[in-house]
Amino acid sequence: MALKLTHYLDVASSWCFWAEPMYAELKQRYAGRVEFEWKIALMDEKGMPKTRAQLEWFYRRSSMLMRSPFDLDSGWFEKGVSEYLAPNAVAEAAKDLGIDDDSVRLALATAGLREGRRTGQWEMAAQIGAVTSGLEKAKLLKRAKSREIEKRIRASTAEFHALQVTQRPTFVIDSEIGDRAVFSGFAKIEPLATTIDAMLEDLGFHESHAARYGSPPSA
User: Fold this and answer.
1) Angle between helices 189-213 and 14-29 (to 10 degrees)
2) CB atoms within 10 A of CB 1
């Protein structure tokens, strides 16, 4: 029986960046037992800092919360921008072109949030994506700017909003027997790991029962 974790994120989100080590550990710990997928959930204007000083205040707070030895770099910030479509579209386009791991989106997040590079600009985002993936930059950029990629990103963002949560990252864990757990804004592994263990245990009980007693009687 199947268990799936869907990771909703924005490449430009600092809290998504802080959650990445936890997500990587989950993937390693539950390899072969849980299916993992990431989807874009674009931040909108409400979630954007209004000034660079405000952004840096949030960065100092989050580095303290995560006990990080470094603060993130605010150099990527562009005042007045309501969303950062370019880095998210490049990550999605790379996945569409066969790079279906986390490498491109992590490279974009690191370039922006650790190095302060302007990943919100199409050329910059495509260059980072191309170097990381080995894809041709022009091909990657064309795909990233395509209607299909933006449509997919808008659709996954709508999925995120339908969950009635506000924080990125959001992790949705679904089991084949209809159980669902939603964690919004979590960056620490313990709550998710405990839930996954419990859901896997329930799936195991269902499998054992089915093996012994078969399908339920018809109505």
Assistant:
1) 40
2) 13
Q: Model's pTM, two decimal places? A: 0.93
Instruction: Report the distance separating Cα 114 and Cα 111, nearest Å.
Output: 6
Spatial separation of the C-alpha atoms in residues 131 and 170, rounded to whole Å:
28
pLDDT tens, position by position, 117-152: 999 999 999 999 999 999 999 999 999 999 999 999
Contact between residue 38 and residue 7 where contact means Cβ atoms under 8 Å apart: yes
The CA R_g of the chain, rounded to the nearest whole Å, is 19
Give the model's pLDDT for residue 210: 72
Q: What pLDDT, in 10s, does the model give residues 96-115?
A: 999 989 999 999 999 999 99
Q: Which domains are present in the chain?
A: 3-213 (3.40.30.10)
